[in-house]
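ok so for the tutorial part 2 we go from a plain amino acid sequence to predicted structure tokens. step 1 is just haveing the sequence, like this:
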Amino acid sequence: MLCFAYGSNMNWHQMRERCPSTRFVGVALLPDHKLAFTRKSENRECGVADALPEADHEIWGVVYQIDERDLGPLDSSEGYKPGRKSNSYFRRECHVLLDGEDTKPLVVFTYFADPEPNPPLPNTEYRNLILSGARHWHLPAEYIAELEQIEVEG
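step 2 — the prediction. this is what the tokens look like for a chain of 154 residues:
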């Protein structure tokens, strides 16, 4: 299964811990979406990432191949349980562009948050998880610069 990660799951160590079968496929672009922090994570005690539809915006991230046996643990870590009405995140199919190229579309799944009113900002540790993944996978420098500007608590 192909999974697109755009938040803390871009961090290789975190993703391998959650899904031991994870294999890197490539970097990709999710067009017409913007990165936002629309939920509070009770575990992290801060705002966490979401991909909101927005024309003329884009989110860079990582495509991983994961075995189906790791899907349940990944769903659980994202607060998603199939069939449950209320979830923190929902796993949905979407289309990304491998290497940001229109000629390399991929159908993947990713997690979209169920937004909450007035979520807190992310904390420095969470922002650094996102940044470490972005740097590790060599996302575009302009995008990394945007991530560095994410406002944090405190």
